[in-house]
Amino acid sequence: MTHPFAVDVDTLSGMRPLSTAVFALGSNLGDRLENLQGALEGLRNTPDVMVVDVSAVYETAAVGGPEDNPDFLNAVVVTETTLQPRTLLERALAIEDAYGRIREEVDGPRTLDVDLLIVGKREIDEKALRLPHPRAHERAFVLVPWHEVDPRASIPGHGAVADLLADLDTSGVRRRDDLVLED
Ligand SMILES: Nc1ncnc2c1ncn2[C@@H]1O[C@H](COP(=O)(O)OP(=O)(O)OP(=O)(O)O)[C@@H](O)[C@H]1O
Ligand SMILES: Nc1nc2c(c(=O)[nH]1)N=C(CO)CN2
Questions:
Q1: What predicted TM-score, i.e. pTM, was given to this entire model?
Q2: Quick check: ipTM above 0.85?
Q3: Which residue intervals define the domain 7,8-dihydro-6-hydroxymethylpterin-pyrophosphokinase in the entry (predicted)?
Q4: Own/partner long-range contacts of 46-52 (Cβ < 8 Å, ≥24 apart)
Q5: Each residue of 86-145: pLDDT tens digit?
Q6: Does the beta carbon of 96 sit less than 6 angstroms from any atom of ligand 1?
Q7: CATH number of this structure's domain 16-173
């Protein structure tokens, strides 16, 4: 007879808590829109990750890197997931690889960058995985699209995205309504 309190593995996995995981996408090499589109598809195809919001596409002046670093396209994707942060980072890096990320110098042009910004309120400080992303709070190219899809968003340890944005120069961030990420 089954023990009255027995719980099977499926039931347990169904009980893993949902967290909000937010990703930043960036590309400044090759077909930039296609690269972002590939990243979005990669996230949509990730089991146990549900894409709930996708920002508009923004054209942004490169921050850092060589003087002639081309402009980026950036966007932010909000998901709900039962996956652990490490698994989410692995997926992000695999998606970068799948889209043939090429990079020759630090902050130089890259086909695709997928950063994990937050996973719920988790705080992790390891070299391979820092949460919240250690530079998200100071990057207008991240915060402008994030605020667009979630005006109430906040970054653990740094505060509301809306407040952080108020102190940033957003002049290098331009919404490109002519460029659309398809569903
Ligand atoms: N929250 C995070 N999101 C993505 N990568 C992270 C995160 N925290 C740590 N990393 C590590 O950073 C590495 C990526 O470093 P990389 O030099 O590509 O950074 P970058 O994308 O060029 O710059 P930045 O992190 O400033 O956007 C990954 O291999 C990953 O292990
Ligand atoms: N505008 C812009 N600048 C950057 C970006 C980016 O995505 N957009 N990513 C960087 C490193 O990840 C460095 N600089």
A1: 0.92
A2: yes
A3: 23-151
A4: 46/83, 46/91, 48/81, 48/82, 48/83, 49/21, 49/79, 49/80, 49/81, 49/83, 49/88, 49/91, 50/79, 50/80, 50/81, 51/77, 51/78, 51/79, 52/78, 52/79, 52/80
A5: 999 999 999 998 876 666 666 666 789 999 999 999 999 999 999 999 999 999 999 999
A6: no
A7: 3.30.70.560
